Amino acid sequence: MAVDAKSVPLEDQEEQERQVQRHDAPAHNPSAPPDEFFDISTTVDPSYVISLIRKLLPANASNNHNSHGDVFYAHVQELETDHTDKTAPTLSGDRLLHVSNDGSESMEIADDFHKSAPEERQNNGSYDGAEQCGHSVPVGEEAWEEYGCILWDLAASKTHAELMEITLGIIGNLACHEVPMKHIVSTIGLIGTVVDQLFSEDAQCLCEACRLLTVGLQSSECISWAKELQSEHILSRILWIAENSLNPQLIEKSVEVLLATIESSEEVVLILLPPLMKLGLASLLINLLDFEMSQLLSERVPERYPVLDVILRSIEALSVIDGHSQEICSNKDLFRLVCDLVKLPDKVEVANSCITAGVLIANILSDEPHLASEISQDLPFLQGLLDIFPFSSEDLEARSALWNIIARLLVRVQENEMSRSALQQYVSVLVSKSDAIEDDLLDFQLDELNSKARTTSLRRIISLLNQWTASKDDDKENEMMGNRYEDDINIDRLLDCCCKHSEYVPPAVSPDMDFKE
Questions:
Q1: 59 assigned to some structural domain
Q2: How far apart are CA 410 and CA 419, in angstroms?
Q3: What pTM value is reported for the model?
Q4: How far apart are CA 478 and CA 472, in angstroms?
Q5: Does residue 210 contact residue 250 with C-beta atoms inside 8 Å?
Q6: Do 376 and 264 belong together in one domain?
């Protein structure tokens, strides 16, 4: 039975018209989500914003990759992010707008795009993109300019800008691909606009801006991004964000920018690293590590694990850069922090961080070998190193670094001069981790490297085990100590395994010898 259109409520009629027009949209454009998906109070219908974004897409976008990407350009100046600022200018096309705290200018902005926007809805005064079907639609570059300017003006309002924060994320995803990245770099002012977002006060916006900067510094176009970042004002802002943010995700993303800088091309490092070091990069990273370690030791918060990991990776990367490594390797607070992390009993949740800490300690001892004396008698530290082996089975560099540290420790152990109880403690630690040692020895990748550090470690383990066995044979009191050392079988097994894999005889070792491969 047909339904009389007049009997349908006005709101239902409008919804039906909206759905029809959504179905009439070009097939390559996604449908706008329902208004109720946006929990934002605004006088502008979110579907209208989406319709404007659609207008920026060429009608033949599905089969024509040569779009108008080089036409739409503008340079953003700092929007109103602090209530103490009287005005904050922003450019929209060739127009300069001022946003003030009293909202009067915001009304002027709204009035400005009345001319291009559809007529105000009669029932609630909001704008609906579905009602602009009778509007004369400009084409080509004129369309880009008109719809882009309207979006720009909308973004001057904080509430409306929240609807468009996704833009940075979209550009970040595009930047992961080589061709779109080249278009981004070639678009006049776009990188500068992204860099300007570092001065936003919105955490999510800052996260997306940092993510995009990280991608840029990791790309083949990294030099272009580095040149936009080289201002001391901008570098100071990045460090400030990392140091002062209370948002774990934002700390992670801002430190990732620093890591990408350290690991980028030599030219980028020459451009950005000296001013960053001058601004206190090394001390900042160590302070961040100190805070994360205090959090880890007091309360395990999973969302902070990635923060700890990226901080350690940044410090480790910095520890091998000529001209800058000394500030890292000579810092005793840092050495204490990473040793404490290695001694952490339960490493499963922070395994990657522990692996990085091991590599970092190896780098530090390479530059500061005397520090090994401070930990040569630290049995929990030795046990912690051996605990890391199962997590590093796929990381040849990490395993080599662990053997390097163990060698530096054990060459300082004088088993002939040790008390029986001290020797027993060393042997107990080694035997308790015999499975981890044997599993690593069964992997022949390090054998192929003819690892001097590993061979030295094995021969020192053999010497300790032999000394313990000899002391038991000479000391009849061992039969009166309650048991006959149930670990004897394990000691013999570990001894046989170490002997088998230590056929290479290294030159005479000294506590300060270099174990670099």
A1: no
A2: 16
A3: 0.69
A4: 6
A5: yes
A6: no
Per-residue pLDDT averaged across 423-436, rounded?
92
Q: Which two tokens stand for residue 212?
A: 């995009």
- What's the whole-number mean pLDDT along residues 90-108? 35
Give the whole-angstrom CA distance, residue 250 versus residue 241.
Answer: 8
Which of 260, 279, 298 is the endpoint of a domain?
279
Which range marks the domain in which residue 444 is found?
Answer: 369-474+494-504
Could you tell me the two tokens for 327? 């500030």
Residues 174 and 273 in one domain: yes
Could you give the C-alpha distances from 173 to 57, 208, 219, in angstroms and in order?
A: 17, 10, 13
Question: Do 161 and 267 fall within a single domain?
Answer: yes
410-419 tens-digit pLDDT = 999 998 888 8
Reported as half-sphere exposure (CB side, CA atoms, 13 A), residue 488 has a value of 10
Rounded to 10 degrees, what is the CA torsion of 14, 20, 26, 27?
130
Give 35-84 pLDDT, tens digit per residue. 444 444 445 555 666 666 665 555 554 444 333 333 333 333 333 333 33
User: At 89, is the secondary structure helix, strand, or coil?
Assistant: strand
Strand ranges, E, within 318-476: none
Could you tell me which residues come within 8 angstroms of residue 427 by beta carbon, excluding any fewer than 6 positions away? Answer: 464, 465, 468, 487, 491
Residue 449 confidence class, pLDDT cut points 50, 70, 90? low
Specify the DSSP class assigned to residue 400: H
Please give the full DSSP string across 436-483, using - where no structure is assigned.
HHHHHHT-THHHHTT-HHHHHHHHHHHHHHHHHHHHHHH-GGGGGSSS
Q: How many domains does the chain have?
A: 2
Q: 270 and 393 in one domain? A: no
CA 284/CA 37 separation, integer angstroms? 41
Residues 274 and 165 in one domain: yes
**How far is 100 from 104, CA to CA, in rounded Å?**
7
**pLDDT tens digits, 230-277:** 999 999 999 999 999 999 999 999 999 999 999 999 999 999 999 999
Does 351 fall in a domain? no
194 belongs to a structural domain = yes
Residue 467's Cβ-count burial label (10 Å; 0-12, 13-18, 19+) is middle
Q: Cα separation of 469 and 492, whole Å?
A: 9
Q: Which two tokens stand for residue 106?
A: 């915001």
Domain boundary among the residues 264, 279, 294 is at: 279
Task: Give the CATH number, domain containing residue 237.
Answer: 1.25.10.10
Rounded CA separation 340/103 (Å):
54
Q: How confident is the model at residue 198 (pLDDT cuts 50, 70, 90)?
A: very high
Cα Rg for the chain, rounded, in angstroms? 32
Residue 103 within a domain: no
- Residue 99's φ and ψ, nearest 5 degrees, are -110, 125
